[in-house]
Amino acid sequence: MKARVQWVGEAMFLGESGSGHAVLMDGPPELGGRNLGVRPMEMLLLGLGGCASFDVVSILKKSRQQVISCEAQLEAERAEVVPKVFSQIRLHFVVKGRGLAPAQVARAVQLSAEKYCSAGVMLERAGVLLSHSHEVIEAE
Questions:
Q1: Which residues fall in a coiled-coil region (predicted)?
Q2: CA–CA separation, 85 vs 89, rounded Å?
């Protein structure tokens, strides 16, 4: 896997993935940015949410669950001093579908957390406290 990050100016950077996608990162005005893109630490949090969501949906589909939507709501706390690393992250999944088995959803979240989500496992090994929760909503 490869990526490239290029400084655009001020506190703005353009990240390009090896798969050919680009994302703009920018800092807040008080640090010289123009607030035109996500912050790098926000990107890390979004990456975790994407990684875990991919796992949950994939596992549920393989279990023949009728998933209509899956939303990962993430909340992170950071250290007070530099480096302001993540100290704790809470992931809450809202899974909507038809006839979803709550036990299957719980198992999908657990498997993602313990085995499949590379981003989450890496962050936990670095000392970040991760917690996972979920809710199931029956579609109309």
A1: none
A2: 11
Strand stretches in 83-128, DSSP E:
86-98
Omega cis (within 30) before 83: yes
Question: CATH 3.30.300.20 in the chain, residues?
Answer: 40-138
Residue linked to tokens 């499949």: 116
pTM, entire model: 0.93
CATH number of 40-138: 3.30.300.20
Fold classification of 1-38 is N-terminal domain of TfIIb (2.20.25)
pLDDT in tens, 16-68: 999 999 999 999 999 999 999 999 999 999 999 999 999 999 999 999 999 99
